[in-house]
Amino acid sequence: MNFFRKSGKINLESFSTANQKKESIIDATPSVIAWRDATFPKGTAFVVAGNFLVLLIRRPLGGAAEQREAEGYRSQKEGITMGKEAKTNAMRILEREKVAYTAHEYPHEEGVAVDGVTVAASIGEDPACVYKTLVTQGSSKNYFVFVIPVAAELDLKAAARSVGEKSVAMIHVADINKVTGYVRGGCSPVGMKKQYRTVFDESVLTQQKVYVSGGRIGTQVCCAPADLIRAARAATAKIIF
Questions:
Q1: CA-CA distance, 6 to 13, in Å (whole number)?
Q2: How many CB atoms lie within 10 A of CB 213?
Q3: Which of 3, 102, 111, 139 has its CA 20 to 30 A from that of 175?
């Protein structure tokens, strides 16, 4: 395999010659060197671009032997795209904490958050068991995380009381990544860049299962409430209207 980088970034223009064609884009992470044992058509170049592995074929696959090689590559593609690289930090922590979970994908536009009620409908679940993660800052300037049903509204006064603050306020959307390591629409109560004090609305205790963001837009994880609360090192309180 050949990996091409220039000043730490990918220069795709160097591959825009007439005898090259983009064969496919595989959702992956930059750690693609782990896939060096796989076989691909001769003349294949690999470029890591952000969270994508771009495969560029240096010459058209014209001969029968080359076609067979391409078929061999295609037969391996599904196995290559799955594995450790597909897991988020939230998933890795759930596994480390021995929490059984299932991951569920839902449709979305790249980088665009989807509201929680729509997410619940997309995965075919009652919004009552799908929870959203809200990040606030208290009067002490400390950050606090509250996890509530997607259709509910956070009671800021009750939330402040639950963590012993005079008041709490939602942080600005632009600060979500800086504070949590996640993006808006993909913020999970598990696996933030720091362990913040976390409170689930007490309604979670009445659910047999609970869904929260899996740590990226387009993914939810489902597990038993008690296990999720343990993994998030959270408490429970009445924090919604």
A1: 11
A2: 29
A3: 102
Tokens at residue 123, please? 């995965």
The answer, yes or no, to whether residue 191 has pLDDT greater than 60, is yes
- Cα angle value 203/144/221 (rounded, 5°): 55
* Residue position matching structure tokens 């890591």: 48
Q: How far apart are CA 146 and CA 237, in angstroms?
A: 10
pLDDT digits (tens, 9 = 90+) for 87-136: 999 999 999 999 999 999 999 999 999 999 999 999 999 999 999 999 99
| pLDDT at position 23 over 90 | no
| Cα–Cα distances in angstroms (integers) from residue 182 to residues 46, 99, 185, 219, in the given order | 28, 21, 9, 13
Nearest CA to 146 out of 171, 175, 182, 166 is that of 171
Task: Output the six-digit token pair for 33.
Answer: 């060197």
| DSSP code string of 86-102 | G--HHHHHHHHTT---E
